[in-house]
User: Fold these one by one.
Assistant:
Number 1:
Amino acid sequence: MVGLLSGTSMDGIDLAAAELRLDGETIELRPLGEHTLDYPAALREDLLSALPPGVLDAAALCRLDTLVGRCFAEAARLGVDLAGGQADFVASLGQTIYHWVERGRALGTLQIGQPAWIAEATGLPVVSDLRTRDVAAAGHGAPLAGVLDSLWLGDGSGSGTQVAVNIGGIANIAVIGGGEPRAYDTGPGNALIDLAAQQRTGKPQDTDGALAASGSVNADLLAILLDDGYYRLPAPKSTGKEHFNAAHLDRALTDLGGPIGDGDLLATLTELTARTIADACRTEGAERVVVAGGGVHNPVLLAALRRQLDAPVLVSDDLGMPSDSKEALLTALLGFLTWNGLPGNTPGTTGASGPRILGSITPGATGLRLPEPATTQPRRLIMRSAATN
């Protein structure tokens, strides 16, 4: 199968091909290949402009849904090639365009990238719209990574309380061990860092944390940024760029009341991400922290996180899970669960009122034939080497 998604950074589509097998309570996952398909520059600009406080009318939304769907269709074709030219289905988390949260409760979520384009391009059925059912069941619809992490890391290996961290545009954690799994968004991951880099340098990111490394943390600005109500909300909780955006950063800089250099600004925003993640990890009693996502490529961010935590901080690659494609593999796993009639949410992580089979299925070129629903809920996931037959 092929897993597709585009994260809150909106820089392109992550795709992974994988083989998954269900054997009783065990899922075996073997990666077959991964790739990132960049969005065309104009489309990415339109997507970023559509985020709050931008205004998006119905015509613009229709165009974006179609253009993103076509890009996802191209990514799906690449994924099928990575799978050796054959796949059973495609799973797509789409592109989140808005996550509606009021008073700590998720009321709705919108992902674009119409799956019909994927089905038409590949002839394969498509499992999509994987968040909305969880929201309808009083969950947050995010983060869904806790499903993968609880199966992968919660194998009774004796590692104590582990916290899996994903640093994308928004950072989230999943807590495994010591009871029911928990997962929630901690706040900005790369969102404000990327925004400031774009504003100050015209580049979409602070590559290798170079700007942050050239500056020093501004304690006054950090205190202003940390004084945000989101960090005080109880878990489960979720957020997005509708909160941590240009207006949010502008207000903080206005409150600072004076100029700040590029390096100091990036150093402070990098420290903010590390601090809020570390605070959450300490609150959860982390005995080991496993990090994935684009943030693992920022050595300044990783160093700050390690400096603030007593627990060992590993990159997921160290444990056999490729950090760059982890979310695409998560998408494949969610599709696999739906395909087999199994719940794809973990209520303790998203806050949903109970387990739910997630998503909708768009038929491919032939009649839709699903397997008999599985009768045993999986309890662990084993990563297999790509070379394993």
Number 2:
Amino acid sequence: MDEDLVARIVLSVVMLGSGVLLVWMARAAASGKLKRNQVAGIRIPSTMSSDEAWLAAHVRAKRPTMFAGLASMASAVFALLPVSVPLVVTGVSVGCVVMLGLVLYGARVGSRAAQQVTATRDAAAEQL
């Protein structure tokens, strides 16, 4: 088997696996099936402060995180196209940048949602 083909297959499997995991994680965390943990999800102080903050963050971040997964899956398909190696590298790199940008955006909006939950909870506690 040609070395380029093996590299393309490995790259495609890694990108497809990453995309599937991102989509699964986005759905599971936003539905409440993926609880607060130290392995998967948006794990920053604001989201880890409570179960309510965790869920709010992931509900808000679901859409961009799912699109990040789809970008990764598109890169997986691109890796197998019969085009030149430089074009594959460029296409997969663009897919990775898009994926990273969407994941970071999801973390940002998720963090804001978690902070809102915490602020609301703290304000309610002060009222008592």
